Amino acid sequence: MLEALKPQPEDQILMLMDQFRADTRADKIDLGVGVYRNSQGVTPVMGAVKSAERQLWESQTTKGYTSLIGDPAFVDAMRDLVIGDAVDPARLAGAASVGGTGAIRLGLDLARLAAPQATVHIPDPSWPNHRAIVAAIGMPMKTFRYFDADENALDMPGMIADLGAVAAGDVVILHGCCHNPTGSDPTPAQWADIVAALSGTGAVVLVDLAYLGLGDGIEADAAATRMLLAGLPEVIVAVSCSKNFGLYRDRAGVVLVSGQSAAQAALVRANLATLNRLSYSFPADHGARLVEMILADAALRAEWTEELSEMRNRINALRRDLAEALRDAAGSDRFAHFGSQRGMFSRLGATPDEVRRLREDHAIYMVGDGRMNIAGLAKEDIPRLARAIAEVCG
Ligand code: PMP
């Protein structure tokens, strides 16, 4: 029966990683996969995580099962971090997930249980896995206007028109901060317009929050999610702890859902528990437990906050340096947006052929749509990168 399986398309980013590894040029530059690297080019285990792991090793007395929604203390700690007091906690239900991807999957599975024929609206462009997950679970899908590539700016009129026209019960995916792949987020005033456009439609928003704290700081980065929660009756928030806690492979994440009443929250919690039961019973606990310990302990939390600020400041300094180097190399301001965009990614606005030439002629690796992981860049590589971009795309 297995012969009936169809070959699957190779993941573009993983393929690029293999090509990069095989490239023997000493000065190659990897702007592909979305991981943070420090000034030594390493994706480190954060100090607060190491300390929490040490404490956990000493204090943990059992590895017995948690609950189907994971450790409730982790879910509550993430609720406090992400949502604060934006909604009455009685209206909220949550469950630990397998990373941010698992949280998105869980949120969409919940939506599908409630409304199997609901259309899922995805920003154009978006993280490619959004489209892939929606296709895999068989929900109808549409894109809405988000970014104007010619202007290198949000298409606000297009977005507001598209979002105002979504049907009741539909699901709208929004990136809470640090939009992947464009690095362009709405301003607080634009978010207010988005909330206004959605309110009254009866649509459910799914906020993908994979980069909390890596844009302008935790409070600023959580503001849009809180605004959506405060302004709309039903919101699903899919949170990843992969980047901001550096826990990539430990797969820590959480889905938080605000319903219209405490009774609805209880119903949501029971459905999340069942969905977990059907796929893996109990979500992984190790990474989630570390996050909970860090958030609950003043010293660990202060250490983590400091390390997160260092990561954010480094990314934003790299952004400014790259924008400046490109201004000098290209003799124009056409790349100035790299300095003001936020998060790990920006898009070069290069053609597929230019992306290929950067790779083949200059050993510079970026995803085919010109997405660059600025958080993976070494400061010393910026002048060479800027010269190559100016030469190929100038
Ligand atoms: N959403 C977005 C927009 C992302 O970029 C990522 C990570 N690349 C995720 C969700 C999921 O992250 P993870 O499953 O690794 O926690």
Write the layout of secondary structure elements.
Blueprint: H1 12-22, E1 29-30, H2 47-59, H3 72-83, E2 92-98, H4 99-114, E3 120-124, H5 128-137, E4 141-145, E5 147-148, E6 153-154, H6 156-164, E7 171-175, H7 188-198, E8 204-209, H8 218-231, E9 235-240, E10 252-258, H9 262-279, H10 286-296, H11 298-330, H12 337-340, E11 345-347, H13 352-362, E12 364-365, E13 371-373, H14 382-393
Parallel strand pairs: 1-12, 3-4, 3-7, 7-8, 8-9
Antiparallel strand pairs: 2-10, 5-6, 9-10, 11-13
Bound molecules: 4'-deoxy-4'-aminopyridoxal-5'-phosphate.
4'-deoxy-4'-aminopyridoxal-5'-phosphate (PMP) binds next to α4.
How would you describe this protein?
With 394 residues, the chain is of the alpha/beta class. Helices cover 47% and strands 14% of the residues. The chain has 14 helices and 13 strands. The chain has helices at 12-22, 47-59, 72-83, 99-114, 128-137, 156-164, 188-198, 218-231, 262-279, 286-296, 298-330, 337-340, 352-362, 382-393, and strands at 29-30, 92-98, 120-124, 141-145, 147-148, 153-154, 171-175, 204-209, 235-240, 252-258, 345-347, 364-365, 371-373. It has a 7-stranded mixed sheet, sandwiched between helices. A two-stranded parallel ribbon has the order 1-12. Helix 3 (72-83) crosses helix 10, helix 6 (156-164) packs parallel to helix 7 (188-198) and helix 7 runs parallel beside helix 8. It starts with 11 loop residues before the first helix and ends with a helix. It binds 4'-deoxy-4'-aminopyridoxal-5'-phosphate. Residues 34, 99-101, 127, 175, 180, 208, 210, 240, 242, 253 line the site of 4'-deoxy-4'-aminopyridoxal-5'-phosphate (PMP).
